[in-house]
Write a structure and sequence with these properties.
89 residues; three-stranded antiparallel beta sheet; single chain
């Protein structure tokens, strides 16, 4: 593998959380990409949910992990951001 190959940094159960993480990385001058995936609930009644994976270049992986550790929002902050992104008051 080459240092500039893309690697999965983190997988999130909500796509919006992956987008927030990618924005934090970009703010730290680390190039990041997000791909989405569908997760199906434990039962048909729960439906599906869209998750997200954050990718960074291999050479930036260690620094990117440090950035996310230092800037990790609380669960409360994530919930507020997710509601705002979904247009929920």
């Amino acid at each position: 593998m080459k240092p500039d190959d893309w690697v999965v940094l983190e997988t999130f159960s909500r796509e919006v959380a992956a987008e927030i993480a990618a924005a934090q990385l970009e703010a730290a001058d680390i190039e990041a990409r997000v791909t989405r995936y569908d997760r199906w609930g434990a039962s048909p009644l729960l439906g599906n949910c869209t998750g997200g994976r954050v990718y960074v270049k291999r050479f930036a992986e260690e620094r990117a992990r440090a950035v996310l550790r230092e800037s990790a929002p609380s669960d409360e902050e994530l919930a507020k951001l997710a509601q705002a992104a979904a247009g929920i008051d």
